[in-house]
What does this fold into?
Amino acid sequence: MAELEKLLATTSRTFALSIPQLADPPRREVSVAYLLFRIADTFEDATRWPRSERLDALHDFADLVREPSLARAKELARAWLQAPPCDHQGYLELVRETPAVLAELEGFAPARRNAIVLHTLRTAEGMARFVQRADEAGNLRLHDVDDLKAYCYVVAGIVGELLTDLFVDAAPELRKVEQTLRAREKAFGEGLQLVNILKDADSDARDGRVYLPPDVPRSQVLELARNDLEDASEYVLALREAGAPRGMLGFTALPVLLARATLDEIEQHGPGSKVSRLTVASLVGKLMNDLDAGAPPLEVHAA
It folds into this structure.
C-alpha cells in the first residue's frame, strides 16, 4: 500500500488526501482505479506527443487492461518512456509503475476487479474518441455545452459510476439508496472535472486544450459546476443516510468541499486560482470533527 500512496501523492493533491480516508479493501481498490485512470489521462494529455502517438498509447493501454500481461506491461512502459509523453515527473513515474499497478488489480475480488477493468476501458476508449477529433499535434477544442458535458462524462462521470459500483458491492446497506446514488453519480464526477477545467483554463489553452466552448459564457459553466456540486453533496448525504462507513463519507465529502472552495476562488480571482494550504487544512480538520461528532459532513446549498 505504501507504494500506491507514494504514486497518489505525486499525481493528485486532492485524492492523496481523500483516498486514505477509506478503509481496505475499498481504499486499495479506489487507489488502483484512480491510478489506472490517471495513466489513461496522461496519454490523452501527452503534450510532447502528436495525436497518433496518443491514440496508439491509449489503444495499447486498453488492450493491456483487457488482457493483463506482466511482460507486455513492462515492454509498453519502457516504450512509452523512450520519448516521454509529458514533463510531469509524477506522471512519468506512474507510467513506469504500470506493471505494479496492474499486478495490484489482479489481487482484487472478481466483481470489483471486473468493475475497475470495465470502467477503465470505457474511459480510455472515450478519451481516444476525443483525441481522434484533435488536429495532428493533438490540439482539441470543444464546441458547446453538450460537447463539454460529453467530455466530462468520459473523463470523470464514469469515475462516479465506478465508485457507486465499488461502494454498493463493499457495503450492501447502500442498496437502499442506490437509486439516489445512480441519479447523481455522473454529476459527482462532472462537477469535480468542471472545477478543474475552469481552474486550469489558461494553462490548458497554452497546451492546445480548449475545453471551455468559446461561445458559452464562463458564468454558465460556473453555474453548471455549482449545480453539479449540489448533486454531489446529495450523493454524499445519501451515503450517510444509508449508514455508509465513515471512510466513504470522508472520501466523497472532501473533494466536494475542496471543489466548492476552489470554485469560490475562481469566481473571485479567475483561472489559475488555488485553495491555500491553510484553507485545505481547515477544511480537512472541520470534516474530521464533523465525522467524529456524527454530524453531516457537508450541506446542500440550494434546493
User: Anything to note?
Assistant: The chain is about 75% helix and 0% strand.
